[in-house]
Structure formats: structure tokens, C-alpha cells
Amino acid sequence: MTKTPQLPLRSALLPVVLLVVLLAYNVFVFGDDALSGSNQFILIIGGTIAAVVGYRHNVSYSAMLDKVAENVKSVTGALLILLFVGALAGTWLASGIIPAMIYYGLQIIHPSVFLPACIIICAIISIATGSSWTTSATVGIALIGIGRAMGIDTGMIAGAVISGAYFGDKLSPLSDTTNLAPAMAGTDLFTHIRYMTNTTVPSIIITLIAFGFIGFFQTTTSSADLGELLTAIEEKFTITGWLFIVPLIVIVLIVKKFPPLIALLIGTLFGGLFAIIFQPDVVLFISGETTASSTATYKGILNAITVETSIPTTNPMLNELFTAGGMVSMLGTIWLILSAMIFGGVMDAIGGLQSISNALLKWAKNTFQLFLSTVASCLAINLTASDQYLAIVVPGKMFSKAYASRKLAPENLSRTLEDAGTVTSVLVPWNTCGAYQSGVLGVGVGEYFIYAIFNWLSPLMTLLFAALNIKIRRLL
After folding, report:
1. How many CB atoms lie within 10 A of CB 348?
2. Could you give the number of structural domains in the chain?
3. Distance of CA 159 to the CA centre of its chain
4. Is residue 201 part of a domain?
């Protein structure tokens, strides 16, 4: 094993500063199209700059490549999940599951309370499943459809979905990050969860109040327009409550701790089966054939799983909603994650992440500065390493002794890791979480950033508690 070099802070910051400048200019030039490929290349350029810095400090090419390979390997599961999310969305559209969710949702959820309802629904599902990703890929997609049909801005909807999903993810004992944070800090799971409610509950209450005000002043589609939407859905799909068996199966599998890949695959297969049973005309249309046959059915289901599918209706708004990209639609997001892992891997190999964390640790002279340094370290690694797990692991390892030496209970560190590392990952477009949520929900990070209130409020809340010395547990 090659020892990580002691990189000077100035050298460590150079690739980060240049990357941020290049990305900012790239977004200025390309706007929303920046994620279509140009940002990916900029991340590779950032990795190249970091590699040059590493080479000048005697870090070998093979060491950097090995670390990149290690980073890519760490996100293999995430990449496969993305592919299966695309497949699931396709069969759930073809089977009428998503249209049924939209159909019933339009009748049940009043527009004025829709955004707070999104938060609550996603929080419940995320607590039950332990996964913000699964929540977004199932009910999140449906809520985006319902909200758009009501005429609500998609950035607002995505912000509400993400806020609720990450609240549930943080507090669920089934969540991987909720288990990882206390393990890194040196406390137990349920002490961590109980202690985390001190900052998490006020954050979600403020978020609910904010969305309550937004919803109250929100202009939505009229009841007459909603009636037209419902009629158009009925004309194209067979709408029945039996369709909800499939999402229920997926949620039960996740709760029963089945691997997400298996749960999503089963959800995809059942979605295809229900499409054949309930929506044979839709399957035939997707196949591109004119006569029903086993070959046409096979072709229709495989098209729904793999490629972009559009199901036209008599309503132009629904035509935009009833489009699923299949597995192919996730390739751009996968490309972004791979490019981010290149930059993060090289930065890790040359000692850049370690250098930045060390500098933050040395700066901390009191309790508040220690908390602030932890938050800054989590944010820096989310920006540079592009992975929420590293944003928990690296600061967790770096700061655990500092918290202990200042007689601070380890749950202070584990709570801060979650408040600053887990939830802010989704606010970075090239982070695995930001890329995933943006790709799955079909809403750019820039569009939902300001509305993901819970996510950017959480690190501010933990710093407020530290500054006012509220709920800061100390060792005897």
C-alpha cells in the first residue's frame, strides 16, 4: 500500500478552485444543458489538474488510477440502481401504475396542501424503507406527476420530495448512512437517532411551515382542468386499485431488508406483468406493431424497460407527464457519476482531501469552531469527492479524537456528520446523490436547490445549536 502524501494546502485547493471556476463558467455557457455532457468533461479536466499536482508531488500514475478504480467500485451498486430505476419507471408507466397514482392523487390531495403532503408522504416511506433513493424512485416520481398536473412548479415539488425523503432517511434505523455515522463517531445507532432528533425535528417543522405558506399562495390548475385531465387518463389507461399491489410489494421488500437491486428488479418485472394484464393496448402501442401477438407483447415490454417511451393522450400536459426514459435515460447520470469519481479518486490519491480536512481541524480553537470545521469538511468532501459516504467517513475519522479530547460525547460528531454530510450531498449537481435525484425526478439541482429547505437548513441548525450551546452533550 502506498502512503498518502502530505500535500500542501495551497496545492490541495488549486484543483478545487479551478474546478469550481470551470464548472461555473460551463453552466453560464450551457445553462440547463450543462449536465448533458459538458460538466462531465469539466470534471475529468479537474481530475487531470489534480493529477498534474499529484505528479509534481511524486504521486505515481498507478496510485492515482488505483484510487479512481476504488472509487468507481464503491458506486457500482448506485450505478446498477440507476439502471433499474429507469427500467422500473418505464414498466410502471406502461402498466398504468404511475397514471393511477396521478389519477387518484389529483382527487385526494388538495393543491393548497400538496407540498406539505409531499414532505409527509416521502418522510413516512423513507423511514419505512431507510432509503431516500427508493422513495424518490417510487412515490417521488408519482408526486412530480401529480404536482405538474396541478400546475405546481417542479422545482418546488422536487424540493418537498427531497426534504421529506432525507428526513426519513436520517431517522430510519434501516438507512445505511444512519448506521455509518455513529460507527465512524464511536456511538451506538439508537443513541445517535435520538440525539439527532434535536436538530432534525426543528428543521423539518420549519420546512413544513415554509411549504405551507408557499402552498397557500400557489396558483394551481382549476377544477375544470383537473376534470379534463382525469378523463384523458381514463381514456388511455385502465385505472384500478389493483395496480397499487406492485409498489406495495416493492416497499414491503425494502422494509424486509431485501437488497434494493432485487426489490427494483421485482418491481420492474411485476410492472411488466401488470402492463400485459391491464394495459394490453398500451403495450401494443409501445411495441410499434399493429397486431397483437406474443412477439409484440415481448417487444413492448422490453421497449418500456430499455428505451424512451411516450404515450400520447388527448391532453398536452399529460403527454409530457406520460414519458419515461427507460434504462437509456440514466446513462447521462451514470456518466456524470463516473466523471465525478475520477476527480474524487485523484484528489484522494494525491492527499488533497486529507490536507483540506487537516487544515480545518487545526483552525478549530473552541467548540463552535470544531463543529464549524466538521460541517465545512463534510461540505468540502461532498464538493470534491462527490460521495456522501466519504463525506461521513473522512471527517468521522479525522475529528473523532478532537471531539473526545474536548470532552464532547461522540453523538455530537455523528449528528453533525449526518446534518452536514448526508443531506447536503443532494445539493451538489456532480455528487452521486445530486446526480441521482436530478436524473430520477427529471428536475435539475439548480431548480430544486432553494426548495430543498430541509437539506440546506440542517447544517445551519446544527451550527446554531453549537453556537448557543444547546443540546451539546459532554463526557463526564
Report:
1. 24
2. 1
3. 11
4. yes
Q: Contact, 459 vs 419, CB < 8 A?
A: yes
If you search the block for the grid coordinates 425494502, which residue do you land on?
254
Say if CB 445 and CB 32 are below 8 A apart. Answer: no
Asked if residue 55 belongs to a domain, the reply is no
The residues, any chain, with a CB within 8 Å of residue 71's CB and separated by 6 or more, are 341, 342, 344, 345, 348, 385, 387
**What H or E segment, with its residue span, contains residue 309?**
strand 309-310
CA 430-450-344 angle, 5° bins: 20
Please, how many CA atoms are within 13 Å of residue 82, restricted to the half-sphere of its CB? 26
Residue 212 within a domain: yes
C-alpha cell at 59: 504521486
d(CA 366, CA 369): 5
Q: Give whole-number Cα distances, 308 to 286, 368, 442, in Å.
A: 10, 50, 13
Cα 71 to Cα 55: distance, rounded to the nearest angstrom: 19
Amino acid found at 201: V
Q: How many CA atoms lie within 13 A of 192 on its CB side?
A: 26
pTM: 0.74
Q: How far apart are CA 449 and CA 156, in angstroms?
A: 9
* Residue 196, in any domain of the structure: yes
Count, residues in the chain:
476
| Count of alpha carbons within 13 angstroms of residue 242, beta-carbon side | 11
**Residue 309 φ then ψ, to 5°:** -125, 130
Cβ-based neighbours of 244, under 8 Å, separated by 6 or more: 97, 100, 101
The whole-angstrom separation of Cα 85 and Cα 165 is 16
Taking the C-alpha atoms of residue 159 and residue 147, their distance in angstroms, rounded to an integer, is: 12
Residue-wise pLDDT for 346-396, tens only, equals 988 998 877 877 787 778 788 999 999 999 989 988 888 777 887 887 788
CA gap 329, 446 in Å, rounded: 20
In angstroms, the CA 8 to CA 5 distance is 9
- Full residue range of the structural domain in which residue 137 is found: 77-329
Model confidence pLDDT, tens digit, residues 416-440 = 999 999 999 999 988 889 988 998 8
- Which cell goes with 405? 479530547
